Write a sequence for this structure.
């Protein structure tokens, strides 16, 4: 990846171009594109220095150059990067009040909804998460743009995940089937990296929905489909190490757990080694997940050796223990 250095003055110059006036039901395409560009610029700044990103957002708010929902969305984004999930979720919730963000920039509306529903599920508030996901699904399914079709599929998989956690298995499986089929068709028509990421994310989360509810036989049926998505992502020349670790590594972990639970220990250990080689267990989520596999595989000595590392992480970790993402 190229490291892009952007001065605060240059960012301000772009930010000042953003419309702060009212809007009609018809989306202002030019302003929509500028807001999406602002989203990218805020991500650049927060990856370099989150505090600087917050200062930049404050300056935009003071200048009146962006709407309040966009300001709240940007703050939610930065606080999430700082692992201050409670504060982040409050800003995303504020951004979604009314329909201003939806009218101004549907993409930011989808992203804020996705972040908020994920946070709610991670706090085991799956009924509330389902309500948020259903709302943005109803908007996305009427959006005929490529982004709308992609977010329809993402919303469906989110709804399925929350439905499964709530014991609504039949509805969840219908949501999963519709989501996976839609994303398969999207990737077949346009194998852009963003589409491949969504394809892999959805596939891993579908597996997670089954394993976290103890339905390993059903998870086994999804393994081939999820493997296709993981392999497509890994084969992309754009796939950076962090994404390979996060998504392909997570798939390998899920595969290891399913196979171990169903008695295929050798194949399970092979999948576990793959996750290990991809560096998945070096991530915070992966480290906690590693304990789950070691317990499942009854590798008690390895689990005991990992305990000091877990204790150290737990003391500073402020994130959720759920692994849906």
């Amino acid at each position: 990846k190229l490291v892009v250095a952007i001065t605060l003055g240059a960012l301000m110059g772009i930010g000042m171009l953003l419309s702060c006036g009212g809007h009609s039901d018809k989306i202002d395409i030019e302003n929509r594109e500028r807001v999406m560009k602002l989203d990218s610029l805020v991500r650049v700044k927060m990856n370099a220095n989150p505090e600087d990103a917050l200062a930049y957002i404050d300056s935009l708010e003071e200048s009146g150059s962006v709407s309040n929902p966009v300001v709240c969305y940007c703050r939610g984004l930065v606080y999430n990067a700082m692992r201050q999930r409670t504060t982040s979720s409050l800003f995303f919730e504020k951004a979604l009040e009314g329909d201003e963000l939806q009218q101004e920039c549907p993409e930011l509306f989808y992203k804020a909804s996705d972040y908020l529903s994920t946070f709610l599920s991670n706090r085991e508030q799956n009924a509330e998460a389902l309500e948020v996901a259903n709302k943005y699904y109803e908007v996305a399914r009427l959006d005929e743009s490529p982004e709308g079709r992609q977010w329809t599929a993402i919303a469906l998989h989110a709804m399925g995940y929350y439905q499964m956690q709530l014991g609504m298995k039949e509805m969840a499986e219908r949501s999963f089937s519709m989501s996976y089929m839609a994303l398969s068709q999207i990737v077949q028509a346009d194998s852009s990296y963003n589409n491949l990421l969504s394809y892999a994310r959805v596939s891993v989360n579908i597996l997670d929905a089954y394993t976290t509810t103890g339905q390993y036989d059903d998870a086994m049926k999804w393994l081939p489909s999820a493997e296709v998505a993981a392999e497509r992502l890994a084969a992309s020349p754009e796939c950076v190490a962090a994404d390979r670790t996060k998504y392909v590594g997570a798939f390998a972990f899920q595969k290891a757990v399913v196979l171990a639970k169903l008695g295929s220990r050798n194949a399970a250990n092979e999948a576990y080694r793959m996750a290990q080689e991809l560096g998945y267990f070096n991530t915070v989520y992966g480290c906690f997940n590693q304990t789950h596999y070691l317990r499942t595989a009854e590798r008690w000595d390895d689990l005991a050796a990992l305990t000091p590392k877990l204790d150290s992480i737990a003391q500073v970790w402020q994130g959720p223990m759920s692994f849906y993402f």
Summary: Residues 201 and 247 are 6 Å apart (CA to CA).
